[in-house]
Design a protein that fits this description.
heterotrimer, A alpha/beta, B alpha/beta, C mainly alpha, A: alpha/beta, 5-stranded parallel β-sheet, B: alpha/beta, 49% helix
Chain lengths: 671, 293, 196
Amino acid sequence: MSNRLTEPPTGADEPRIGVFVCHCGTNIASKVDVHDVCEYAGTLPGVAFSTEYKYMCSDPGQEFIAAAIKEHKLNRIVVSACSPLLHEDTFRNAVAKGGLNPYYFHMVNIREHGAWVHEDKASATAKSKDLVRAAVYRIVFHEALERKRVSVDPKVLVVGGGIAGIHAALTLAEAGKKVYLVEREPTIGGHMAQFDKTFPTLDCSACILTPKMSKVKSHPNITLWTYSEVAEVDGFVGNFKVKVKRKPRYIVEDACVGCMDCIDVCVFKEAKFEDEFNLGLSKRKPVYIPFPQATPQIVTIDPDTCIEVKTGKCKKTCVEICGDRNAIDFSQKEKIEEIEVGNIILATGFKTYDPARSPEYGYGRLENVYTGLEIERLINSSGPTGGHVVCRDGNKPKTVGIIHCVGSRDEKSNKWCSRVCCMYSLKLAHLIKEHTGAEVYNFYIDIRTPGKGYEEFYDRLQGEGVHFIRGRVSEIADWIVSPEEEGKLIIRVEDTLSGFVRRIPVDMAVLAVGLEPRPDAQEVRKMFNISCATEGWFLERHPKLAPVDTFTDGIFIAGGCQGPKDIPDTVAQAGSAAAQVMALIDKGYVELEPNTAYIDEKECSGCKSCIPLCPYTAISFDAGSLKAVINEALCKGCGTCVASCPSGSISQNLFEDAEIYSEIEGVLADV
Amino acid sequence: MKYSYYPGCSLKGTGKAYEESVLAIFETMGVEANEIDDWNCCGATAYMGVDESMAFGLAGRNLALAEREGATDVVVPCNACYLSLNKANKYIEEYPQVKEKTDKALAAGGLKYGGSLKVRHPLDVFVNDIGLSRIKDAVKTPLKDLKVAPYYGCQIVRPYAAFDSQRNPTSMDQLLDVLGADVVDYPLKTRCCSGSQTGSLPEVGLRLVYILLKEAKRRGADVIVTICPLCQFNLESYQDEVSKRYKEDLAIPILYFTQVMGLALGLSAQKVGLTRNLVHVFPTLDKREVGHV
Amino acid sequence: MTTPKSMKYESERDHDFSEWITGVVGSERIRNCIQCGICSSTCPVSHYMDYTPRRLINMARQGFKDEVLRSKTIWLCTSCYSCTTECPKLIKVTDVMYALKRKAIQERVYPRRFAIPILGKEFYKMVRAKGRITESRLMMIFMLKTNLLRIFTMSKMGLRLIRTGRMDYKPESVKRIKELQAVMDASSDRKGVSTS
């Protein structure tokens, strides 16, 4: 024992260590000789008690630890089981129940680091012993620590005004919480506002969405900022400081009543600019309102096309007609609002795949090739054709082909299944048939209808006589081999279920484009300090058990920004995120992990080198004492400052030098 | 500008006009091209099917010879040769087992390939090295009103080339545009002409040739411009047989893109091998009043 | 009338064949094929094949060796690489076809009178002997071996090619044929192949 680099304490604090080895059913026991590990642990210095159990995390397992502490007068506990991510809290609670400070505890992961990564039992067992020994060496240096509490600001920021953001904001507002809802576009509503009907029930999208939109606008607990973007986020769970950039829309929001007289009298007699809401299928003026139910019901002036904004030399007929309302204000400048919130929900949505990236489908080159979203607008009665599904020449199509998986399930564009395209293609097939009576062909690789009522909808469509051809279309083209193909779009596909290649002439082709992360997902991720999966979707804390949490406390995600999903799932996530936020607000405080860094004031030279290195801006410089100061509430325990301090004056709880060195010594000890 | 030049077997045979016109353009544009000494068969596609390692060995010898001569870029006009050499070059880099085998084979012949070469097509060189603006400046008789269908063939951009889109290449379109030609939108620009199948399985091959010719004519093309000796041969030599089989007049001149460049740059018909064509372009040029020497 | 049998039994599957094909350069990803059929659809000649490329890939990974190697499909492939370009799973379908062709030749199950393998073989022989291809000679030999009648339909074209100087009967050859043959012999996958 005396050859150890660091000597364990003696006397009253002399360690009496308990080691508890878990079988995890057969997860660990099938690859690790648990009994052997347990017996071995009993021989290690300072170990007063060691035992094994089938499920240490179960209630009896936890009781067992609490009882053993009392019975054997244990003062240090090692549990050798699974990942601390899952059960560290469980066991700390068990230790506390036994009357010990919960930080006199260390957890060893012999499942992921042992059983699951070894093929033979002997080496898995040997490694488990090494890991247990390291923990036994380390634990003697543990000290009692206390968790600090900070209060939670009850206000909430919701970013994104699509159906996810709308639902989350309303849920919180109904529960009496104050919510800021920030939306980049001039109106809330998101993609759902562009849809005509929703699957599988075919209820009108606007009919179910717009009541929620107007409720957002009128709710006393919601502050709605459209045409605005989050510019900066500071702080930590319970105490975020956020700057919101409010872009000038050249309209006094409280004064505008949405009469739209200014649109009528605009010096541009004809609408000539691409209408974003209708995806360029119609035109708008520089002063516009995206769609009839836009919320807020006020106009926006587009700085890129308005003559007055661009040159200052317009007749300003709009100002004239607005008269005493004075709702138009060309002197508006960008404004920054600073707010404080305790929690943030990100509901920033997705973008649809740009089919110009798949030139074989002729999008942008062949005029009657549309995207699914464009067809939604054509079907919609407030859309560019007043609800008539027609080709560019104004004629109704007699045959329509819908191509699934465009920009999905393809290593060259997006690998993932976009999850909604099957169902929206079925819906469009139904609506196109209803509006035009056309023959409709669906070209699919696999039909995926796993939602409630979805398979039944597929069954209904088959009954309606829609053709289903299993095969990925290789090309939509206008070259012909036979006279009846003249003037048509030819869809070429292997009918894989029949086993031959077919050429099918259609009047209109619809591309069921997939879903992608927004192009600025990485910037948003950085601003809110969360993670993205490799594809760019925001990463949840756990795919099953913490689907709306992120790895940053107090920041939650919901809807399409987390991955492709349909409206029912989006709404479910939004509700879940709101509930998580409410749990934090109603508890009123958060407990901070005590694994924070601290400064030995005597040793600190005031060199400031740690300050710019801290990723959480937790360190500041005290001008009075000329020393660095760490804000415990902001510190996440990453250890960067500890490692970089030139004078060695920064240490970290739970990662003290003695703890780390003895752990290393333990894992390397010759046995 | 200095390049190593790999002609391949076709450019010494049925594709003679291609070699003549490529070299003539190189000369006109001040490009130095040195033929690899003692080059051998590229290991072409038929070969990959018989013995792949040997095909890599054959391609490897050509690359090794060029590297030994101090080359950095090998220019390969024939699409099939371009693909073979480019593929070998890529696979030697990508697959350790291919590299090991090829190294061993080359060593048996006292050769070594260090993997330093880039395999280039003349189209790539013209558009990306010489540049369209220099070519534009060199144009003497713009091909005004000459409607051309640009035909790339299958093995140029697919699947290993990086200088243009694999699905919708446009570099030749841009080049022809600079020469003053009226470029026809030709959606079959990369569709296979059937290559060697026309000789071995006429009912399959002739059908593919038919589709290509018919669509070019349907879109009003005066000529089809190609960049591959096998495509040129296929599309030109079987026109009689195809016309007879499908009872349609499918006669249309099939020119190498370098021949078309020659016309615009003011080179003689002789110099760019136009007299070797079976379907002559001269009547079309006269009709369109396109100047030629 | 005979009734064809379409039931397949597990004993008819050749596991070694399926292992072999997934190990060949370019074929590594055939297990990931989702049978979308874009290879067959983009193929300019798939409608002449007995099995479409998609079906062939599934049969190959399932180990139906006999059907795969005797299929006409592999000999119809024109090596245009559009399947390789389009495959959403990055399967190098053209390379798979090459691998199957080579296997069929090795196992001597290719259609003997079928023109394409004959062309491949003649091509091979000429390169082995001369290092280069003389197109006129290759064409002549090929026609003699496959379709004498076609010589007559092709003779008109031949004359025109001779007249335009595109048909040279003088054989092309490399100078250092020994060096080349050493490389070829050392790289061959097929030991003891007769080259005569």
